[in-house]
Amino acid sequence: MADMKEIEAYFKANPPGEKPFKMDRATVIINPRAFVDSNLFLLKAAAGKTNDEKRALKPYFDRLEKFYNLKTNN
Predict the structure, then answer these.
(1) Rounded to an integer, what distance in angstroms lies between the CA atom of residue 49 and that of residue 34?
(2) Phi and psi based region of residue 27 (left: phi greater than 0; alpha: psi -120 to 50; beta: remaining)
(3) Which is more confidently placed, 52 or 61?
(4) Measured CA angle at 41 (ends 10, 5), to 5 deg
(5) pLDDT of residue 55 exceeding 90
(6) Which of 19, 61, 67 is nearest to 40 (CA)?
(7) Alpha carbons 69 and 63: distance in angstroms, whole number
(8) Which of 29, 53, 67, 73 can pair with 49 through a Cys bridge, CB separation 3.0 to 4.6 Å?
(9) Cα–Cα distances in angstroms (integers) from residue 49 to residues 12, 39, 42, 66, in the given order
(10) pLDDT band at residue 74, thresholds of 50, 70 and 90?
(11) What is the pLDDT of residues 9-38, one digit of tens each?
């Protein structure tokens, strides 16, 4: 399980590009760079939030982590 700092460092060193990426049968990331940037922005903004607010952003982290795992295991 990766943490946000690890994921951010990876994508800073290995930009995801802008070519669509198929994560699974039902999910295609149309613009991976925008996907990573927007998810990291939202997650960083949650740093000072309450636990309920952080919990609401968990799906963003989960998808970002799944994308990271797929990119690093290829």
Answers:
(1) 23
(2) beta
(3) 61
(4) 35
(5) no
(6) 61
(7) 10
(8) 53
(9) 25, 16, 11, 23
(10) low
(11) 999 999 998 899 999 999 999 999 999 999
E-strand spans in the chain? Answer: 21-24, 27-29
Please state, as a whole number, how many other Cβ atoms lie within 10 Å of the Cβ of residue 70. 14
How much is the pTM? Answer: 0.87
Number of H helices, E strands in the chain: 4, 2
Please report, as a single letter, which amino acid is at residue 41. Answer: F
Record the tokens describing residue 68, joined without a space. 């990271």
What does the block give as tokens for 29? 């990331």
Tokens of 13: 């060193």
Domain map of the chain by residue range? Answer: 4-72
